[in-house]
Amino acid sequence: MNALTDIARALAAGSSDSLPSSLFGLPDQAPHERVLLAADPVTGLKAILAVHSTARGPAFGGCRFWSYDNELAALNDALRLSQGMSHKNALANLPFGGGKAVIIKPQGEFDRAALFAAFGRAVQSLDGAYITAEDVGTTTADMKGMMAHTQYVSGIPRDGAFGGDPSPKTAWGVFVSIDEGVKRVLGRESLDGVRVALQGLGAVGWHLAEFLHQAGAKLVVADVNGEKVARAVAELGAQAVGVGEILAADVDVVAPCALGATLNAVSIPALKARLIAGAANNQLATAADGDALQARGIAYLPDYLVNAGGIISVAREFRGEGEEAAVMAEVGQIRGRVAELLDRVKVSGLTPAREADAWARSLLVKPA
């Protein structure tokens, strides 16, 4: 069964609520330039490589390795993520377009190294139109193993050169965004005493928790991994709540750092925070959810604006320009873009999500 079969069966069953409106892209957006379905029966690989735009340069974005309910869900995720990468790379002023890959995690036992080797060959088949790196479910070891099969991969520890896990850089970009948002939205001079709810303590979420703790923030945390939560309580003085309670916690800021679509018609009415800024991709379930946040007086800093630190890091690594201080300084520029977005919405009257979309689309051209 493949993604097209999934769609046909869903249509035949009369259920289209979860279907993408088009195989080529998402509503109100430019169609994807290329979507590759790659399968390898020997390794069990089923991957979707989505190239949204190469207007600014080769499409650059990570690879997600995940257990999806079905192939259609994987396709929809790839389309949403790759479009977000176009916006992210444009706002970060990178000479790259947007793309993303998802690999459907095989059921049962499988040879991980062989599977990622097959994925590397699929990346290579696009002849540089798409460059990959880590994302949810993938590791630096996966990327390193792919180097024998494709040159279009980044996020790899390199002897004598900059490279490796980009998650601390992603976390730093989110941290400076929260810090700027707290100043501009909450009118607070620092993060000292500010209550922040962290949804997810994965690679990025944990680094973000450490940065916030060092700045004096009071943390409320939730994660499906109880050991991570216990560690945050012991080491960072965090308050633990259930995963179903974290978004509604009585805090100043919510930082979604798990999977997407958590800001939706169910969660938004229960929010108590006045500011949302986190590392998760595609936090809004729909564009209308951004409008709902605005109507409630909640400032939302779009994910692809604030979580660009990781792509900035792997892009510099790929270009051979990496140096820790320079990369951190470039990631720190996200603060200024957050400030600019908040200034823009005062003029346009749009929500931050819609203003950021318009701003990013205006930049989807070849850099000067």
Question: What key attributes describe this structure?
Answer:
disordered N terminus; 368 residues; alpha/beta; 6-stranded mixed sheet
Written overview of the protein:
- This protein has 368 residues and is an alpha/beta fold.
- 42% of the residues lie in helices and 14% in strands.
- The protein is built from 13 helices and twelve strands.
- It has helices at residues 3-12, 71-91, 112-125, 140-146, 167-186, 203-214, 226-236, 287-295, 303-306, 309-319, 324-332, 334-348, 352-362; strands at residues 34-40, 45-53, 59-60, 63-66, 97-104, 130-131, 195-199, 218-222, 239-240, 253-256, 275-276, 299-300.
- The strands form two sheets. Strands 1, 2, 3, 4, 5 and 6 form a six-stranded mixed β-sheet that branches. Strands 9-8-7-10-11-12 form a six-stranded parallel β-sheet, sandwiched between helices.
- Strand 8, helix 7 (226-236) and strand 9 form a beta-alpha-beta unit.
